[in-house]
Write a structure and sequence with these properties.
By secondary structure, chain A is α/β, with parallel strands linked by helices. Chain A is 38% helix and 15% strand. Chain A has 2 domains: 139 residues, Aspartate Aminotransferase, domain 1; 256 residues, Aspartate Aminotransferase, domain 2. The relative contact order of chain A is 0.17. Chain B has one domain: Alpha-Beta Complex (Sufe protein. Chain: A), CATH 3.90.1010. The chains are: A alpha/beta, B alpha+beta.
Chain lengths: 423, 133
C-alpha cells in the first residue's frame, strides 16, 4: 500500500532533529492563550490548530499586499497574485501533482460536489452505478444522493468488515456487471481511523474502467501523499485540517479530465471571453475558480504546507499513529469503554469510543470541565454509526502537537465520567 | 461537578418520570436532534383542553432525557394554553441551570419542541427561539 511507503525527497526534511511534539506545540499560540485550565485539544480531525507561521503569513499578506488577484497590474496586485499562485505550486509539489491540476475550492465538501456536479453530471448516464463505502463522511454521500435522483444512478457500497475495514475481496463482484463507472471513497475514516488501501482499490477500479475519487480530508493533513502513486483521478482535501485556515480546500484532478469536463460555477475569472449570450472558459485551473477566491487563506495554506514539509509528513504520521496506539491501550484498561474500528497498525491518529451507560455528549461535556476537547456525536457519518450499532460516539484525534499527557488527561477525565454516572 | 450534572438532572436521567407509551394516544410526536442522535417519542392524551396524560420514550444524553422527564412531569394535568406558553427559560428553570451553549441547548430543548408540536397539533415544531441560546 502506497500510504505507508517511503516519503518522497521533496517532503523529507534535511538535517532536522527528530520531531519533538513539545517544541512543535510551542509554535501554536492557542496553547499559550491564558485560560482557566490548560487546553487539552483532542479534536484535530474536526479542525487542526494553527501555527504562528500560518497566522503570520495571512496577516503579512493583508498588511503588505492585499489586492485582488489576476486583475490589477499595479505592484501589490502582482505581489498578491504571486503569493496565491505560489501557494498552488507549493501544494502541487506537496502531493506530487502539476499546479495546473490544483483547483482551489472552499473545502473538501465543495471539491467533492465539484466532481459530482461537473464530472458526474456530465459523464454518468442513467443505469450507471457509483461505488461508495459505508464509512463515508456525509460530504461524500450527499452529493451522490443528489446526483442519483437526477441521473437515475445506482449506488453501491464496498462492504465493511466487523473491525471497520473495507472488504476489498468483494470488489470483483461489485464491478462484474460493468455498471460501476465511478468509485468515490475516503482515504482515512474520520470515525474509525481506518487507512483504506487506496492504491489497491484504484487498481481494480481502473481494470474495470472506472474513475476513482478519493476524499483525503483526514489523510492529506497527516501522511505523505503522492497522487501519482495512489493511481486515482480526483483527490479532495481541506486546509483547515492541515494546520491552515478555514475557507479553502483543494481538488486535484487529472489534467485530461479537468480539461474535458464543464466548469462548476460560472462568473468572473473562470472565463476567457464573454459576450451577452455566451462565454468561453479560462484555462486550467482557473476555469474552476469563479469569483474572487480566498486569497489570504490560500497564502495560509501555502504556509501550512511549508511548515508541514519542514516537520516531515512521515514523522507526523508516525507520531499520530503512536498516540492512537497509546490511547487505544489506555482506553482498553477502562472497563465499559469500547473502542471502535481496527487495530492500531491499521489506522491513523483517530480513536472513537463509547462509554457504557453514558451518552457521548455527556462524556464530552464532563471532559470539557477538565479542559479536554473531544468530539461527540455521529461525526457526520450517520450510516457508519448505524452499521456499527451505536447512535453516536466520542472521538479523540491527534496532530503533531498532541502529547501523551493529553491522552493521560483524557483517561483521567473518563474515570470522572464513570464516577459521576455510576449508579 | 457544576450545575449541569447536579443530582437533580442525573436523577431524572436514571429514573425518568412519565416514561413509557400510551395505547391509542390522541397525539404521538417524534423528533430527533441530528447533531448528537438524541431521539424522543411522546404520547399524549388530551381531555377538557388539558394534557390528561403524557408518556415518553427515547434515547439520548442526560440533558435531553432529563428535560423530557421534567417537562412531562410538569405538563401533566396542565391546560393546553399554559403548555403552549412554556418558554426556553421555563425548561432551563426546570433543569435548574442558568444557561447552555448553543450545542447543548438543542439537547435540552428537544423535549419542548416535541411538546409544542403536540400542543399545536403539528408534526414538528420549528422555533428559532428554542434553537438558539
Amino acid at each position: 500500500m502506497s500510504t505507508a511507503g517511503p516519503v518522497s525527497e521533496a517532503v523529507r526534511p534535511t538535517g532536522a532533529a527528530v520531531m519533538d511534539p513539545r517544541l512543535l506545540k510551542a509554535q501554536f499560540p492557542i496553547f499559550a492563550t491564558p485560560r482557566e485550565r490548560p487546553l487539552i485539544y483532542l479534536d484535530s480531525a474536526a479542525t487542526s490548530q494553527k501555527p504562528q507561521a500560518v497566522l503570520d503569513a495571512m496577516n503579512d499578506y493583508y498588511v503588505s499586499c492585499n489586492a485582488n488577484i489576476h486583475r490589477g497590474v499595479y505592484t501589490i496586485a502582482e505581489q498578491a497574485t504571486a503569493l496565491y499562485e505560489d501557494a498552488r505550486r507549493r501544494f502541487a509539489a506537496f502531493v506530487n501533482a502539476s499546479p495546473r491540476e490544483i483547483v482551489f475550492t472552499r473545502n473538501s465538501t465543495e471539491a467533492l460536489n465539484l466532481v459530482a456536479r461537473s464530472y458526474g453530471a456530465w459523464k454518468l448516464k442513467p443505469g450507471d452505478a457509483v461505488l461508495l463505502t459505508p464509512m463515508e463522511h456525509h460530504s461524500n454521500l450527499v452529493p451522490w444522493h443528489q446526483l442519483q435522483a437526477e441521473r437515475q444512478l445506482e449506488l453501491r457500497f464496498i462492504p465493511m468488515t466487523g473491525t471497520g475495514e473495507l472488504d476489498v475481496s468483494a470488489l470483483p463482484k461489485l464491478f462484474a456487471d460493468g455498471k460501476v463507472k465511478l468509485v468515490s471513497f475516503v482515504h482515512v475514516s474520520n470515525v474509525l481511523g481506518t487507512v483504506n488501501p487506496v492504491a489497491d482499490i484504484a487498481r481494480v477500479a481502473k481494470q474495470h474502467g472506472a474513475t476513482v475519487v478519493v476524499d483525503a480530508s483526514q489523510s492529506a493533513a497527516h501522511m505523505p501523499l503522492d497522487v501519482q502513486a495512489l493511481g486515482v483521478d480526483f483527490l479532495a482535501c481541506t486546509a483547515h485540517k492541515m494546520l491552515g485556515p478555514t475557507g479553502i480546500g483543494v481538488l486535484w484532478g487529472r489534467r485530461e479530465l479537468l480539461e474535458a469536463m464543464p466548469p462548476f460555477l460560472g462568473g468572473g475569472e473562470m472565463i476567457r471571453t464573454v459576450s451577452l449570450t455566451e462565454s468561453t472558459w479560462n484555462e486550467l485551473p482557473w476555469k474552476f475558480e469563479a469569483g474572487t477566491m480566498p486569497i489570504a487563506e490560500a497564502v495560509g495554506l501555502g504556509a501550512a504546507v511549508r511548515w508541514l514539509e519542514k516537520v516531515g509528513m512521515d514523522r507526523v504520521f508516525a507520531h499520530d499513529r503512536e498516540l492512537a496506539a497509546y490511547a487505544m491501550e489506555r482506553l482498553g484498561e477502562i472497563k465499559g469503554v469500547r473502542v471502535l474500528g481496527p487495530a492500531a497498525d491499521k489506522r491513523g491518529g483517530v480513536v472513537a469510543f463509547t462509554v457504557d451507560g453514558v451518552h457521548p455528549h455527556d462524556v464530552a461535556t464532563v471532559l470539557d470541565r477538565d479542559g479536554v476537547c473531544v468530539r461527540a456525536g455521529h461525526h457526520c457519518a450517520m450510516p457508519l454509526h448505524e452499521a456499527l450499532g451505536v447512535p453516536s460516539s466520542a472521538r479523540a484525534s491527534f496532530h503533531c502537537y498532541s502529547l501523551r499527557e493529553d491522552v493521560d488527561a483524557l483517561i483521567a477525565g473518563l474515570h470522572t465520567v464513570q464516577k459521576l454516572f455510576a449508579r | 461537578m457544576d450545575a449541569l450534572f447536579r443530582d437533580h438532572i442525573l436523577d431524572h436521567y436514571r429514573n425518568p418520570r412519565c416514561h413509557g407509551s400510551l395505547e391509542r394516544p390522541d397525539a404521538r410526536v417524534e423528533d430527533a436532534n441530528p447533531l448528537c442522535g438524541d431521539q424522543l417519542r411522546m404520547d399524549f392524551r388530551f381531555a377538557d383542553g388539558r394534557v390528561a396524560e403524557v408518556r415518553f420514550t427515547g434515547s439520548g444524553c442526560s440533558i435531553s432525557l432529563a428535560s423530557a422527564s421534567l417537562l412531562c412531569e410538569a405538563i401533566e394535568g396542565k391546560p393546553l394554553d399554559e403548555v403552549k406558553a412554556i418558554t426556553r427559560q421555563d425548561v432551563l428553570d426546570l433543569l435548574g441551570i442558568d444557561d447552555l451553549g448553543p450545542v447543548r441547548s438543542k439537547c435540552a430543548m428537544l423535549a419542548l419542541k416535541t411538546v409544542k408540536a403536540a400542543a399545536y397539533g403539528m408534526a414538528t415544531w420549528t422555533d428559532e427561539d428554542l434553537d438558539q441560546a
